[in-house]
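We close this part of the discussion by returning to an individual protein. The amino acid sequence and the backbone structure tokens for this protein are reproduced below:
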Amino acid sequence: MKLGLLLLTALPIAAYAQDSIAISHSHEYPNTFSSGSANVQQLTNTTRKFNDWAVSVGGGPAFMTFADVTSFYGDKVKWGWNAYASIDKQINHTFGIDLQYQMGETKQQAELATNPAAGIANAWTKYKQVSLLGDINFSNLLRRVDNKSPYRWALHGYLGGGIMAFKTELIDNDASRWSTNPPRIPIKNDQKLEISSFFWQAALGLKYNVSKLVDLEARVIYINSMDEEFDGGGEGRSLDTPLGNRINYNLINDTYSDGAMSFTLGLSFKLGKHNTHLAWHDPLQEVYGRMHELENLNTELVVCEKGDNDNDGVCDDWDRQLDTPAGARVDGAGVALDMDLDGVIDLHDQCVTVPGPASNNGCPIVENIQPSLPSIEETINKDFEGIEFALNKAIIRPQSFQKLDHAAEIIKKLDQNSKFLVVGATDTRGSDTANKILSQKRADAVVNYLVGKGVPSSMLIAEGRGETDLKYPECNPATKCTEDKNEANRRVFFQAK
């Protein structure tokens, strides 16, 4: 019968789980992914960043609980002990396998209600067990991958089986009975370690990650022997005995298998050179850690032997302009930038995007002739083109200040009774409400900047149109167009009211 139950019992099988990390970008930028690089390596034992082996030991009290002869009699408790040692292999972050050796001893008492003359019997059970357990990490199984917080507690479940050897003995200690009857012959059982001694067990454990080397775990373990001899009550359920007494301790309860429980406190020693174990390994936290390392990487390589005497950020080894004025932006060769190619570097050019003579600080000489309104809008919108904001914010980046300064100078020369719109627009990514709010804030930011440069506030009206005023209407949705057209739709422009 036990061999049949063995064939019907199997260890739990857990499917391999793959950690996936989704990286999303703002609706203002296209999704970009790298297809690989020369540094891509296969995942092997040498390239992985976690340990997956451990050795565990633990122990605590044990009790015969679900049996005929138990550790609880009246208000008395018979204390036993249990200890285990295991070799643990973590398969993935939610499932592992443990090869476990367990031993212990329980103490029991019982009294036959059907034969009070038998007295109170005392029994003990000593056992040794070898088992294979499946280990499910419920905390990792239920943990959200977008949870960025570190964690140190985990709930584990164990289920498996194996074979065991045990010895039992039950003695009737009713001395008054011996005056009229022969002493009771002790009931003994000696079960060898063999395939017919199959048992199964289940456990719950709460682990605490003490350090990268040690875990602390409290377990509640249930052991089911799958027979009636484990509690020391003897074999079978017959009432016939060699002494003719109708005594059988296996008839106390209507159960055909004996079970014990233990409560243990143990340690797991994680083996390996890495800082984390697979049971605690969080791939998302690894990505954040790697990003932090890259952002704070300090190189020790000497790549600028001659130094950078003009402090323009380009080493003198390949600097083509060794006397760059302080504060000037330079290109990769160390030459000061002159965006409008008018011979006045951007540092001294008050009109960076419009050519003009050096005598007028790089700005064109404007005659005292009131230009036509279309030409005003066109001129100012050239300065408005390419205004840069912080990502998903209405903060103007410093590189756009000179453009707005030039626009402010032109607007201040116009009739102050005129009214003009400063319009903010977006592409079609994101929700209508979010785009409307963002475009209004950016239009407000440009108006505030111009007013701060002396433009009368009565001349300007900020208007956020969101995605309702597209420069390229065919880009709805945005996936129909290339990114340069979507970028052109994200703009702030100047318009006569």
The longest strand covers residues 153-172. The radius of gyration is 41 Å.
